[in-house]
Amino acid sequence: MYISSLYIHPIKSLLPIAINETSVNTLGFPHDRTFALLRQSTGQTLHIGQVSQLCLFSVELDGSEALIVRFNPTGDTLRLPLVPKLGREIEVRMHNSPCTSFHVSDAADSFFSQHLGFEATLVFLGNSSRDVLGNVAPPPSGIWSLLGYKPEGKITFADCAPLLVTTSASLEEVSKRCGEGVDVRKFRPNVVVSPDSDDEEEMAAFEEDYWAGLEMGEGVNIELTANCARCSSVNVDFSTGGLVEKEKQPLKMMQKDRRVDPGMKYSPVFGRYGFLGAARGDKELFLKVGDKVKITQKNKERTEFCKFPVPCVEICVDFWNRLAGTIDWYSGELGVGWLLE
Q: Which of 41, 9, 34 is nearest to 120 (CA)?
């Protein structure tokens, strides 16, 4: 297998940028989802599933320091620095995971407000980050897991995780059901994995449901922790800003057999959320299109979104009970076998 495509989404819910190579860190790819649009009247983050005309804005890199945003129906453009000066602070609460963001400029607000038809505000993440919620972050290991520590992680304006991995085999299956090729950008991946001629087995559609770990390129380890549930955003027609015909809507075509995660039982699954795993040494990590991909770990069963193993209180009670059972109260010696279970 190999990386067939890499994407960044500098402004959340606008069209992504295809890139050939990138560095990768614990927050994902640099410049991925570091900007977001807010509705001025409510302060809510704009998502393409609710505001489908966001797909009419394309974004491209202008050198290494700027972005060009284009409203495709008119050709109007806006130039933005990739890392703008920090304006006034604006609190953003996205999926109950708040962070402090920074106003970009009045000119940016005017550009988006004019073309969206309502007052909007563009914000930049700066050096802030958001907490990963639920059980999406990689779980703690060893004694920390026994003590009931919950998973922790940080993200940008991404919904749930720093990275999203999909496969070309699954896209081909959805396209077949829709009767036409579906644009992979509708699924908003960061990494698309495809089969190559060296693979011993043919890649099956949706086999990534069971992937737990991947090694990409030269020592880039990705932990895949959760399924990506899909919403009406995959039905958006990029050419009109509306929705595609009902009989060709990917969401509908996946409803019958892709609602495979009990934690999101009404939503079909496509793709896996990922986090950067343990690095080898202190070297900076990079990925590029064409890099080999190897499965390092598989789950026997599909993961369940937001399902924790045992409540923290029960874990602590069990911890003390097991501890008491390992002490020889006459000799005062403490057994350690339970630590290795």
A: 41
- Cβ atoms within 10 Å, residue 289: 16
What is d(CA 158, CA 12) in angstroms, rounded to the nearest whole number? 7
DSSP state of 42: T
What are the start-end ranges of the E strands in 33-145? 35-39, 57-62, 66-71, 76-81, 89-94, 97-103, 120-124, 130-131
Burial class (CB in 10 A: 0-12, 13-18, 19+), 301: exposed
Q: Please tell me the distance from the alpha carbon of residue 51 to that of residue 248, in angstroms, as a whole number.
A: 20
Q: What is the structure's pLDDT at 315? A: 41
Sign of CA dihedral 90, 275, 188, 62: positive
Residue 12 burial (CB < 10 Å; 0-12/13-18/19+)? Answer: buried
Residue with tokens 């919950």: 150
Query: Which class for 333: exposed (0-12), middle (13-18), buried (19 or more C-beta within 10 A)?
Result: exposed
Structure tokens at 189: 């991946």
- C-alpha to C-alpha distance for 284 and 22, rounded to whole angstroms: 11
- For the chain, give the number of residues: 341
List beta partners, residue 258: none
Structure confidence by residue, pLDDT tens digits, 208-238: 999 999 999 999 999 999 999 999 999 999 9
Q: What angle do CA 55, 185, 154 make, to 5 degrees?
A: 95
| CA separation for the pair 34, 44 (Å, rounded) | 16
Yes or no: say if 163 and 144 are a contact pair by the CB < 8 Å rule: no
Query: 110: Cβ–Cβ under 8 A, 6 or more apart, which residues?
Result: none
Cα-flanking dihedrals φ and ψ of residue 211, to 5°?
Answer: -70, 130
pTM of the model: 0.86
Contacts of 230 (CB under 8 A, 6+ apart): 187, 250, 251, 254, 267, 268, 269, 270
Q: What pLDDT is stored for residue 55 in this prediction? A: 97
Tens digit of each residue's pLDDT (9 = 90 or more) over 255-286: 999 999 999 999 999 999 999 987 655 678 99
